[in-house]
Design goal:
- By secondary structure, this protein is of the alpha+beta class.
- The protein has a domain of about 90 residues.
- About 35% of the residues lie in helices and about 25% in strands.
- It has 2 helices and 4 strands; from the N terminus they run ββββαα.
- A 4-stranded antiparallel sheet has the order 1-2-3-4.
- Strand 1 and strand 2 form a beta hairpin.
- It is elongated, with a radius of gyration of 24 Å.
- The termini are far apart.
Length: about 130
């Protein structure tokens, strides 16, 4: 784990500090990456309550340390976390695409209609459900 992503436990967490998180958004110009700042409102022994700008006026509890932190003390750490999250997301999407391509290859060779012109899959479902 990069030292920047490793949580730094400070004894001086205070309600005046900010945490950062990068996100991306679709706009009419394409993808836009930006960061949000989260004010720390209350500190507890295990974590803190921060403002969540995405949910107007609501607060979110986040741990001070752990594997999947939501926001970070520095923009650089937040950026590295953003890149790691997007790489993980890309891996999930690539596996889904591969599975769907295999599915399409297998169903492309099947005839969806029987000799009476009925949809085979709907007919099979209706037989199972006794419709």
């Amino acid at each position: 784990m990069s030292d920047l992503l490793r949580p730094v436990v400070h004894k001086t967490w205070s309600a005046c500090m900010q945490l950062f998180r990068y996100e991306y958004y679709m706009t009419d110009r394409g993808l836009t990456v930006s960061y949000s700042t989260h004010e720390i409102r209350k500190v507890t022994p295990k974590g803190m309550w921060i403002d969540d700008p995405r949910h107007f006026g609501k607060r979110r509890w986040v741990p001070k340390e752990g594997k999947n932190l939501y926001a970070f003390r520095t923009k650089q750490a937040a950026w590295l976390n953003f890149l790691a999250r997007k790489k993980k997301q890309l891996g999930h999407l690539q596996r889904q695409v591969k599975a769907l391509e295999g599915l399409l290859r297998s169903v492309n060779h099947q005839q969806p209609l029987d000799k009476a012109g009925r949809d085979i899959y709907i007919h099979q479902i209706s037989l199972i459900l006794d419709i």
